[in-house]
Amino acid sequence: MTQKNVAEILKSDSILQEVHVNGWVRTFRSNRFIAINDGSTINNIQCVIDFENTPEDTLKRITTGSAVSIKGTIVESQGKGQSVEIQVSEIEILGDSNADEYPIQPKKHSFEFLRENAHLRVRTNTFSAVMRVRSKLSFAVHKYFQENGFNYVNTPIITGTDAEGAGEMFKVTNFETNKAPLTEDGKIDYSKDFFGKETSLTVSGQLEAETFAMSLGKAYTFGPTFRAENSNTTRHLAEFWMIEPEVAFMDLDGNMDLAEDFIKSVLKDVLETCKDDLAFLDQRLTQEEKSKPQAERSEMSLLNKLKFVVDNNFKRVSYTEAFDILRNSKPNKKKKFQYPINEWGADLQSEHERYLVEKHFKCPVILFDYPANIKAFYMRLNDDGKTVRAMDVLFPGIGEMVGGSQREERFDVLVDKMKALDIDEKELWWYLDLRKYGTAVHSGFGLGFERLVQFTTGMSNIRDVIPFPRTPQNAEF
Ligand code: 4AD
Ligand code: MG
């Protein structure tokens, strides 16, 4: 008897074949119909037992959440909703699940409740679908880069440099609280710490990835990054996964092309590989939207949104053009923005990004050539002396999906910028070396993987697209 998973059984046309399947009970109706799920697909297999010939004790132990091993015959289903089912000849309860205590009841649970039970939430339809899509998306990311000549580089997680210069790093130290040795002037003496210097968790692998671009030509990272920013929003995590390609001899236009092509390719990929899960998530979102007032409902279903992104060009707009659109916009004139747009140079807030993407352009937008003083130190200064070759890719419902730039490849310009921002040249000696030995135009970007998963699955809270979210005041599991 062959052991098969539920996905294989549902796909098979092997009527009357004997099979063995293991899984968890989702529901048990009429002492007869057991819906089994094993995580291989969003769909359950219906297993029909002959209750008259099944011991009373066994019947009682078939409860939601219990693990079972079933042997039986694949038959055409009489019922609606599935083509085949299993006529059970043997059932063994592998692991009981007390029906009164099991948190995941066969009913609708709130996402807040499920977050508190993150160790069990992957057993629900929504979370199993999201996590399978996340897994396939990861694979699509690697596939895209590997097929396009990029080298996967594992940049360090513990680092001495603040790649973004934003001071949002989690410290890594082996000193015990209050027992850290001090220097003569009363500061903590990190020279006596584990690494002999002050270290933190990385906020981005970019600077190290640049060393690989400037040797292997095309590199990408895909790993965890950490930000100690106290943002309690539906789009921020303290620990998230970032994808960072970096390419030598590529300017900002090439960078925009790469970002657009990359996003379209991985979406196209999962539209193929995750059909059932995306169909389920599409329905789920449509249901959820029905509870919203008409004006707040999205005009497109999830699947249509994904197809729209794949099939249409992203709109490319300079910061200055975007600034003019925003300044002349209705919400700005009617003072509806929390941060009014008056002076060129202002940083764009998420309300502005959302206006541009959701109201004005109604498609993904790439903003480029930002004012230098709102962007990081490593970005290539334009000839105007006041803007840098930066780009952000903005998505409907998400806001910033990608942040990237052409890098400052000129030694003197970079050193001047670092001086102006009080960034220690000694700390970044190796980064400056790239500009001393064979410097060249190069560019890259960072894409927040969870924001991509959010967009792909239609989940509104970023905490629901990562297995165990880390956010301010929360590091359970
Ligand atoms: O715009 P950011 O800060 O750019 C960088 O870190 C660059 N070093 C990337 C590069 O050029 N190689 O972050 C990049 C992306 C953002 O666009 C966003 O999608 C995501 O990372 N991101 C977050 N995602 C979840 N939670 C957070 N707290 C995030 N902060 C940034
Ligand atoms: Mg950014």
What does this structure look like?
- The protein is α+β, with helices and mostly antiparallel strands.
- It folds into two domains: 2-102, OB fold (Dihydrolipoamide Acetyltransferase, E2P) (Beta Barrel); 123-168 and 203-464, BirA Bifunctional Protein, domain 2 (2-Layer Sandwich).
- 32% of the residues lie in helices and 23% in strands.
- The chain has 14 helices and 17 strands.
- The protein has helices at 6-11, 56-61, 111-116, 125-147, 206-216, 252-273, 275-290, 302-311, 319-327, 330-333, 350-361, 411-420, 429-436, 449-457, and strands spanning 2-3, 18-29, 33-37, 45-48, 67-76, 84-95, 151-152, 158-159, 171-172, 199-201, 218-226, 239-248, 315-318, 365-371, 387-395, 399-406, 442-448.
- The strands form three sheets. The protein has an eight-stranded mixed sheet, sandwiched between helices. Strands 2-3-4-6-5 form a five-stranded mixed barrel. The protein has a three-stranded antiparallel sheet with strand order 8-10-9, with no helix packed on it.
- The mean pLDDT is 96.
- Magnesium ion binds at residues 400, 403.
- Magnesium ion binds next to strand 16.
- Keywords: Aminoacyl-tRNA synthetase, ATP-binding, Cytoplasm, Ligase, Nucleotide-binding, Protein biosynthesis.
- Residues 131-467 form the Aminoacyl-transfer RNA synthetases class-II family profile domain.
Q: How many discrete structural domains?
A: 2
| Shape-level CATH architecture of the largest domain | 2-Layer Sandwich
Number of DSSP strand runs: 17
CATH top level label of the largest domain: Alpha Beta
Instruction: Give the CATH H-level superfamily of the largest domain.
Output: Bira Bifunctional Protein, Domain 2
The radius of gyration computed from the alpha-carbon positions, rounded to a whole number of angstroms, is 27 Å
Q: What is the arithmetic mean of pLDDT?
A: 96
